[in-house]
Amino acid sequence: MQRIVDNALAITKESVKTLTYESLNNIARCINGFSALLLTLLPGKSNVLEGLHGWELRPTLRGPRLPRWMHNGVSSFNHFIHELSVDSDTSSLDYSSGDDDSDGMSTPPSPLSQSSLRSWASLPANYESHWTDWITFIVWWALLPARILLWVPLYLLRLLARRNSRMQPLSPGRYQHSSRPCFSKAIPGKEHDVPNRTTDKRRGVIEDLQLGIEIFIETIFDFFHKAAHLLLSPSETFGIVLSWFSSSSPSSKGNYGDVSDDEIVQTAILGDNDSSLTERRTTTSLYNTDTRTCQDVITELGYPYEAIRVVTSDGYGLLLERIPRRDARKAVYLQHGVMDSSMGWVSNGVVGSPAFAAYDQGYDVFLGNFRGLVSRDHVKKNISSKDFWRYSINEHATEDIPAMIEKIHEIKTSELKLYQPTMEEVVNEDQPYKLCVVSHSLGGAAVLMYVITRKIEEKPHRLSRLILLSPAGFHYDSNMCFTLMEYTFLFLGPVLSRIVPAFYIPTKFFRMLLNKLARDFHNYPAVGGLVQTLMSYVVGGDSSNWVGVMGLPHYNMNDMPGISFRVAQHLAQIKHSGKFKMFDYGSSSANMDVYGSPEPLDLGEFYGLIDVPVDLVAGKKDKVIRPSMVRKHYRVMRDSGVDVSYNEFEYAHLDFTFSHREELLAYVMSRLLLVEPTQTQTVHKKGMKLKKKMETGKPHL
Fold it and tell me: Most C-beta atoms within 10 A of its C-beta, which of 4, 239, 451, 592?
């Protein structure tokens, strides 16, 4: 009788889970299909979706999915929950009931498990049904009564044999041999564990809903299963009730539910008491969002890593990251653009990332990060949001970049001296290394502003070459959307600045939601294509992979880069004036206090102060900073006598950092190699002392 009830509950449970699973998937398929219909009506989608792989307008139809208990034994939900709890890095246990293990049938991975090679949520777009599935479906239902009639007596015989075996005492050797046979089983997908550390591990919103519904159904049926077990086993129920009021030994309490004590011991030795491991496991398992940092990406790929905290003169804490090559006399400093971070320089892996390419060429690589993270690193711990976000591009150029470059100079000079303790350098004593800059978008404008302001202040900028990828600075040639934003910031700026100090996602929940939606956009290609098309309309039809950028790990629930209102207002001022100018504080007196003139500095007029070679790179498909605006930089520099070069590639705006472009990497590396490392003559300390003595002994004329 107990087995009949168990079978009825198992069949009902799997049927309910299958029904809810298919209902949710049908809703998702309807959304995907509706998005496909909208995509067919939107103009210009072919250019926008050109760089988006795997999207399709017409969803693939398939027959209903068979319940998993009809595929391969009982549900694998318990197996999946165990994998979830130990985060796929520990050995997983087979949580199937012993009744079905005796059939020799291994449970399939859960559709939401990380060990599954393909997400079930992507099946509506990738899976093509076959006519044999329908035949299998009909045959299974036709043979179901006979299967149940044959299964019940066989199971009763197995159950009787198992109870007889439990009555026999187990020797220690037999216990060790027969317990936990699943430890010797190969875990599905475990051979892919190392690559999965550098790939997307997230679940999407749809997958989270499926998991939540499955957990709820499993909990409800587990309650009814235990209740039925107690009702059909009065003697065992009576024994459990007596155990509540008795003072028996702990060993007499472990006979219910076939739960052995060694399971409890094993969970205690998995490092759960370690707070750092617990926090990391909670992040990756419970929320299942990609919270990897630039450090995680670099170290997982086998490269060295160093994090340096830099504090600016106005109190902002910056993260300067490094792939160190301490004895190198050539270094490169990479600076990101707006709403980006150092992650952009390493996001394409070993082959396609500029940071790794430069390191492999012998460079000491430094990755800069502007101020503007949601975490708000500042020396004033209680700084208000309004005060923290009160900065423009001026502060990026006159505070952030100088602080990071001076820190690089301090590190390199001290390290290089350690490698030659008995020698001192004669040539270029002040800077025994060459430092080049590779910057993108807003980072390019900030670097140009930095070089010019340092020359005006008669301070060394310590740079040997500038490689600017689609640099900001001139923006008068743009689309209607940017023009609308321009006038919005110019006329409503005084009011909006008091209400919205910056643009970012303010809460962890919505940042987590964005992180998960990015996964759903990949699982449901028509939805992702629709979002990609709408976002590209906002930026003038730029065909960058905007959906892919939303899935970058630096947009996670814990932190993300933001953009201050003043930075956006500064860009609007530049676009409106048609000149590359510093921030206008709104009044002649305020500008006089900062610049010594009633108008902000026009940096284009000071391009003649740039004394290092400059390489400008534009994207022919770039609609954010059009090639005409990069050519404007080139013409002004050329007319000012700057050693400047110009090149164009078939790229959109984000392709310079986010996409894998071999020809761009080859070009950037070729320009970096034009700068020869510092050549030093070395003499012994006695020779240096003699030279200094001779120089101090010369009469002054």
Answer: 451
